[in-house]
What does this fold into?
Amino acid sequence: MTTTVPPSAGTTAIRPFTVNFPDQDLDELRRRIVAARLPGAELVADRSQGVQLATIQALARYWATDHDWRAAEARLNALPQFVTEIDGVDIHFIHVRSPHPDALPLLMTHGWPGSVIELLDTVGPLTDPTAHGGSADDAFHLVLPSLPGYGFSGAPAELGWHSGRIAQAWATLMDRLGYTRYVAQGGDVGADVTDAMGRQGPPGLAGVHLNLLTLALPLKEHMPAESAQERAAHDAVTTFTTDGFAYFMEQSTRPQTIGYSLLDSPLGLAAWMLDHDTDSYLKIARAFVDGEPVGNLTRDTVLDNVTLYWLTGTGASAARWYWEFGRFVAAAQAAGGPPPPVTVPVAFTTFPGELWAAPQSWAEAVYPGLAYFNAVDRGGHFAAWEEPELFSSEVRAAFRSLR
It folds into this structure.
């Protein structure tokens, strides 16, 4: 990785950034993949014991012989990338200005176990909609930051980098880029950060769009449960907190412990990242084992993302966000009272394969006066990654009234 820093640059400088890992890093990665020790096969016919051996074996074969990280590097380097220091941490971001001068600035935040890789296929549809069946009136100038401790961003060297602090950093970033009016979008961790931005209401933020209802976790017992959709959402949250919570619990309590494995074993890292949710896992397993990807969750895009984590050594630092999240939520609950209200219009899209597919009543319970809601017919937790065209059309619709 390289950056170019002008000699007179201060801490607020925006420095060009290029991805360029040495060949020996890739050679060492392949050596470790081939030398990996694997457990015996699971004792069940499904994924209830974790990532299945056949999936990891297929992934390892492809990763060691066919995956082309240099193609991923070239794809990243074809986009304008930068780094700037905010609150003592170097923040990496992609910044693509639309060819349409009246485009609306849009900040989009990825999640875990994702990175800017999961958002790359939305760049074209969002910045140049006329080339993707849309209208110039729906164009965005796009800012895609890497979360602190993730990917090419620096890892915080002190405590306190929870979503609220990241939200403040993102407001600083948009101000530094000269955007006086903009909107924000997020899923997974990015949804929590974007929610925090909406509650902080920084100058210039005109609205937010989310595709995960993160507050459903602490507020589950207060959510409506009358309709079949509402009961299904309740069941999905219960399933997550009883049988899909392993990564969340470990990272929110002992991120350093799992970090040793994530930094030492490529296949350990890959398995940990694949074991996020059943819908996404089954789609990714199908791509590797059967050669039949669902949407854009292909072998190459999945391994682009895992390889990014490996080469940057960010398995542990990315996991620490969950530790910060857990303590922030515990402190807020101990203090009592509702969170501050969101001060900007909120839009929400439900994708059917999400951890819990939030019905409109749930979104309205968390965001009274919800400005936009839609439930689409396909896509899951990694909506922008899996269905970039559909996701982009939802982002356009969500912010159309704010232009």
